[in-house]
Amino acid sequence: MDKIQQRTVNVSLVVIAVFAVLFLRLIYLQVFEYKELGSISDANSLRRVWLQPPRGRLIDRNGTVVVDNQPLYTVKVIPSEFTDSLKKNTLASLLYITWEELSERIEKGFKYNRFTPAAAGRDIEPQEMMRLSENLWRLPGVMIEVDNKRKYPAQVNASHIFGYLNFISKSQLEAMSEKGYTPDDKTGSKGLEKYYEDQLRGEKGVRFELVNSIGKFAGKFENGARDRPFTNGSDLHLTLDAGLQRLAEDLLKETEKSGAIVAIDPNDGGILAMTSQPDYDLEILNGKTDGDKWTEIVRDPDKPLFNRAIQASYPPGSVYKLLLALAAVEENVITPEKKIFCSGVFRLGRGRFRCHGGQGHGLVNLERSIIESCNVYYYNLIFDLGFEKWTEYGRMFGFGKTTGIDLPGERSSPLPSVAYYNKRYGKGKWTRGYLVSLAIGQGELNTTPLQLAAFTATIANKGTWHQPHLVRGYQPVDSDKIIPLDFTKNKLPISEKTFETVRQAMFGVVERGTGRFAAVKDVKVAGKTGTAQNPHGEDHAWFVAFAPLEKPSIALAVLVENAGYGGSISAPIAGKLINYYVNGPDTTAAADSLSVTAEHSDSSESELQENDI
To answer: Which of 12-26, 237-251, 401-415, 529-543 has the lowest mean pLDDT?
Structure first.
């Protein structure tokens, strides 16, 4: 047999083999797959249904669920099967929306994928569900799916902490489509919902269904063999104390003023409570957004969406004297015993800077300067220490930069320095008079409530700065273990003896000084009042504190806007929060039971008369 004949035989064998395979496949389909193919033939289409997973829950430090899930019913349509105007009119009337609104939603889905279900109505009420179910036979291509929305069972608002969900934007979808997001998905928009989106969202499941010509379910495709179940999102275990958070919200609301409260565990930096007032009701944004109420929130001149705890900067007032005292003692610029004479006025050039309206304190040592908040003492001290050292210690405690808290949107103001002033005013064009204001926490020095709370916590634990955080770990749905998260801590190069000197003086502030309204029965509370000068109205009231003195378990910063003296309004709030956390929720705050008269007021609000400095 020559080569040509051999090739002919080989080709013939290949052709015969191919036809034999096709024939055998035809027999298999006709005999063994008849029922499956018959059901597909009877059904006009195969429908892919995404199964949305429940998001992870948020659980406080005591095991209380503060954010949970509840069912949300969503009506979806297949864009390719829903082009008839009569069907659109019918569905729009059943959903109580306009024809134009429905068409816009369907068109959006059509552009993405005309065969993928697109949301036409979300968070449907039970009575609407019943009416719709009765009319589904008239609306092929319409389906009802069970999704999830949030539930807030602990009576804790915490809107700036929890955040909310929002429909994924076009830009987000382009960036996140590889993670399985589709146009009708919701994603974390603010707060922890946004920061921990990857842990909370879970993984979608999918179900393949056979449907007939009118969109009615006709059976599972391949008996569900290709279906994939969803995976729940991971639970977040918070450092938050729900009871303390609720109390902080209530106390700040009672002032009827804007402000913020931050409470921290000084042992690890965990946030025990954080509130910013005014806030907003998360239910407005839960499920189906109430457009009118959302507009009210956005247009509110008091800016309830603004998280004052981490985004608003205020002069720290006399609270910042604590940093100057720590730096001066640590650098051996002054001893705690050394006394400086306060005549009531500090003179620099032709400028006169008054203390307590010009009434002097006489001879003042470090402890008394903190207890009575003597301005003149610190006017002198900043020049003895030097501007560079003052800036160095400010950076050491994290001022001038964000803390890195696990919330989006944190802001910080620059820390004044020689370089800062040279850049802003020009080298040689600013004077030493600027330092006078900085000495008492005024001028161009600004801090957030969170920064001051972290600063106070560092004093409380004698020198370890912990990165503030709200989540201590997450727990996957298939695990009984919490996976801890790591956060930064930094041991400062300041001796414990120096810290103890300032801590004892802070105890004196509450025991017999400007912060006596923060006193708590049987608990040694250390604190410091402060007043942030406000050129647009009444001054802002600060109070920072920690307790118990011997072994602190809570440190906090309270800021009430346009409230005047820190000792009169912010200190009582701090006392009630400390009492709740240290003595338990069944106790009564000492500020309600102790009859004290504040004879001293913080002196940072003294008038600064700068003349040709």
So the answer is: 12-26
Q: 137 burial class (0-12, 13-18, 19+ CB within 10 angstroms)?
A: exposed
Task: Name the token pair of 516.
Answer: 């006596």
Cβ atoms of residues 591 and 297 within 8 Å = no
Torsion angle of alpha carbons 255, 256, 259, 263, nearest 10°? 40
End-to-end C-alpha distance for the chain, whole angstroms? 115
Whether residue 252 contacts residue 277, with contact meaning beta carbons closer than 8 Å, is answered with yes
DSSP state at residue 611: -
Pairing of strands 362-364, 186-188: unpaired
Query: Angle formed by the axes of helices 449-460 and 496-512, to 10°?
Result: 110
Residue 467 clears pLDDT 90, i.e. is over it: yes
Measuring CA to CA, which residue among 198, 196, 163, 169 is closest to residue 182? Answer: 169
Provide the strand spans (E) within 155-277: 165-167, 186-188, 205-211, 217-220, 235-238, 259-264, 271-277
**Per-residue pLDDT tens digits for 272-282:** 999 999 999 99
CB 577 within 8 Å of CB 508 = no
111, 182 Cβ separation under 8 angstroms? no
pLDDT range class, residue 48, cuts 50, 70, 90:
confident
CA distance 382 to 230: 62
DSSP string, 374-392: -HHHHHHHHHHH-HHHHHH
Q: With residue 151 as reference, give the H or E element that holds it.
A: strand 142-151
Please say whether the beta carbons of 349 and 612 come within 8 A.
Answer: yes
> What tens digit of pLDDT does each residue of 533-555 get?
887 778 899 999 999 999 999 99
The enclosing H or E element of 518 equals none
Is 52:201 a contact under the CB 8 Å cutoff?
no
Strands 58-59 and 235-238, how do they pair?
A: parallel
Cross-strand partners of 523: 520
Range ranked top by mean pLDDT from 126-130, 221-225, 255-259: 255-259
Q: What share of the chain is helix, strand, coil (3-state, %, to 5)?
A: 40, 20, 40
Among the listed residues 611, 568, 613, the one whose alpha carbon sits nearest the alpha carbon of residue 591:
568
Cα–Cα separations (whole angstroms), residue 612 to 349, 372, 421: 8, 29, 18
Burial class (CB in 10 A: 0-12, 13-18, 19+), 360: middle
Q: What is the pTM of this model?
A: 0.83
Q: Residue 260: its pLDDT value, please?
A: 98
CB 117 within 8 Å of CB 143: yes
- pLDDT at position 154 is 79
Distance separating alpha carbons of residues 512 and 532, to the nearest angstrom? 22
Q: Is the pLDDT of residue 180 over 90?
A: no
